[in-house]
């Protein structure tokens, strides 16, 4: 999901999306620890998703809306 798409979401939708992506990261880490993870690059992709969501939330809190 791109930052532009995230910026169109409401605060509640962003919070829900963040919870979902964090759960996904937890599951990927679990798979990695047990040796079941086939694509380890997915960990980095998921971390970047979390960073994008947190960036949009921080921008909104500080009043730095971007278009």
Enter the CATH topology name.
Answer: Helix Hairpins
Helical stretch tally: 3
Provide the gyration radius in Å.
14 Å
How far apart are the termini? 16 Å
Q: Sheet bearing the most strands, described? A: none
Q: Mean pLDDT, nearest integer?
A: 93
Order of helices and strands: HHH
| Count of individual beta strands | 0
Helical coverage, percent range = over 70%
Our estimate of the beta-strand percent is under 5%
What would you say the CATH architecture is? Orthogonal Bundle
Shape field = elongated
Question: What does this entry look like structurally?
Answer:
With 67 residues, this protein is mainly α. It has a single domain, classed as Helix Hairpins (Orthogonal Bundle). It has three helices and no strands. Helix 2 runs antiparallel to helix 3 (41-62). It is elongated, with a radius of gyration of 14 Å. The chain starts with a helix and ends in a 5-residue tail after the last helix. The mean pLDDT is 93.
Keywords, separated by commas or semicolons:
single chain; elongated; Helix Hairpins
Which helices and strands, and how do they pair?
Layout: H1 3-7, H2 11-34, H3 41-62
Helix pairs in contact: 2-3
Summarize the structure.
The protein is mostly helical and 67 residues long. The protein has 3 helices and no strands.
């Amino acid at each position: 999901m791109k930052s532009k798409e995230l910026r169109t979401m409401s605060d509640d939708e962003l919070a829900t999306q963040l919870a979902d992506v964090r759960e996904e990261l937890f599951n990927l880490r679990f798979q990695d620890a047990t040796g079941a993870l086939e694509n380890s690059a997915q960990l980095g992709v998921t971390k970047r998703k979390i960073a994008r969501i947190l960036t949009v939330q921080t921008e909104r809190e500080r009043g730095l809306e971007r278009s």
